[in-house]
Amino acid sequence: MTLTLTNARLINPETGTDTIGSLTIKDGVITGINTAPVGDVVDCSGKCLAPGIVDIGVKVCEPGERHKESYRTAGLAAAAGGVTTVVTRPDTMPAIDSPEVLEFVARRAREASQVRMIPMAALTKGRDGREMVEIGFLQDAGAAAFTDCDRVVTDTKVFARCLTYARSLNALVIAHPQDPVMSKGAAVTSGKFASLRGLPAVSPMAERIGLERDLALVEMTNAAYHADNLSSATALPALERAKAAGLDVTAGASIHHLTLNELDVGNYRTFFKVKPPLRSEDDRKALVAAVASGLIDIISSMHTPQDEESKRLPYEEAASGAVALETLLPAAMRLYHAGDMDLPTLWRALSLNPAKRLGLDGGRLAEGAPADLVLFDPDAPFVMDRFKLQSKSKNTPFDEQRMQGKVLATWVGGKEVFRKG
Q1: Residues 215-261: pLDDT tens digits?
Q2: Euclidean distance between CA atoms 376 and 373, whole angstroms
Q3: Neighbours of 290 (CB within 10 A)
Q4: Cis ω on the peptide bond leading into residue 276 (within 30° of 0)?
Q5: CB-based contact 90:57 (threshold 8 Å)
Q6: For the domain bounded by 52-358+391-397, which CATH number is listed?
Q7: pLDDT tens-digit readout, 354-403
Q8: Where does this protein have coiled-coil stretches (predicted)?
Q9: Is residue 8 exposed (0-12), middle (13-18) or buried (19+ Cβ within 10 Å)?
Q10: How far apart are the C-alpha atoms of 139 and 50, rounded to whole Å?
Q11: Sign of CA dihedral 340, 58, 405, 393
């Protein structure tokens, strides 16, 4: 099958361009840009056509908590959000820490999802921080990276051993830098707002302490390392030094920390409880500037489904996390409409950089690249209704907010998996 998408605003993060043109697809790959139309022709009416989003750090709750999110519903949500590759987290019940569990979730993903699903595996058995998993066997089974997610490996010797072994196999280690002692029990960021609300808080310095430790071990082992969810300005100088020193280090930030701040918690609104907690407006602006400059490489949804029962609790007791597969693109449009960055720069962080970090072919508008694409209108206004989301869980902080940016169609390997009705 051959398909030509014409009159499209091509967003190319690799060349940094935003131009009107056409794109031809055959047998699931891009075969031509701005060539004569062949096959079926679709007029994109001047809307934006970009590489599909590659989202690192999505929680799909199989096995163990399928009532919160399944591979089927996560795939539907991803397709509706323009996410063509979902890189899933291992913080399931049980953790994805053996080849057998990894093969089970990979099979479930193939059977149930219409977008690409790539699993990550735990770094330590049970995510308990005591014993390293069989990294080599898990790599052979298809693990894209290794992470204990928000459970910090507190034993420095164990973490160093994991990094050393990962380095020998060219495996990527993803960490969530925090000082676990300082962060324990915290619900918000320390400061005047936290004091007024009487909530347990943690200083952003906990993130810097955790990152500094990790980077020292990366310097010692020369491992490939990615900090998945930086949230504070105080951590950025350490990241800058590590990159300047030539370490194989990248970093990401979640869309919530780039578009929301601590004041959005308001009167104990638990849908705004995420981990790490939302920071100050100064921190948010510093993160946005770091993404625009390329210091922070990747924007992710950090999609974390939670059921109503775990959110309808006092703020301190409520579960952390928010769904974001469908809201990632319209939330990111806030950065575009605010003038913080143009669309190619935004898609560099949403698609190109995560694909490059994981060694994937996607994230590009180029001949020979997979035809994983999203067509969207960056200006289309709407009011977010969480009950219309495809995810099983509806815990989004953007509920009832006015947003801009609608996904019109999504293709994976040249096959249309979503079209706006």
Answers
A1: 999 999 999 999 999 999 999 999 999 999 999 999 999 999 999 99
A2: 10
A3: 21
A4: yes
A5: no
A6: 3.20.20.140
A7: 999 999 999 999 999 999 999 999 999 999 999 999 999 999 999 999 99
A8: none
A9: buried
A10: 30
A11: negative
Contacts of 126-129 spanning 24+ positions with Cβ under 8 A: 126/94, 126/95, 126/97, 127/90, 127/91, 127/95, 127/97, 127/151, 129/153, 129/154, 129/155, 129/158, 129/159
Model confidence over 329-339: pLDDT tens digits?
A: 999 999 999 99
Would you state the pLDDT for residue 1?
83
Question: For 134-245, where are the E strands, in sequence order?
Answer: 172-175, 188-189, 201-202, 224-227
In the chain the first and final C-alpha atoms are separated, in Å, by 23
pLDDT tens digits, 185-220:
999 999 999 999 999 999 999 999 999 999 999 999
- The packing angle between helices 236-244 and 281-293, to 10°, is 20
Report the length, in residues, of the chain. 421
Per-domain residue ranges for the chain?
52-358+391-397
**Helix, strand, coil content of the chain in percent (nearest 5):** 35, 25, 40
Bridge partners, 6 (sequence order): 43
Q: Which two tokens stand for residue 388?
A: 């219309």
Taking the C-alpha atoms of residue 153 and residue 29, their distance in angstroms, rounded to an integer, is 41
The answer to whether 315 and 199 are in contact (CB under 8 A) is yes
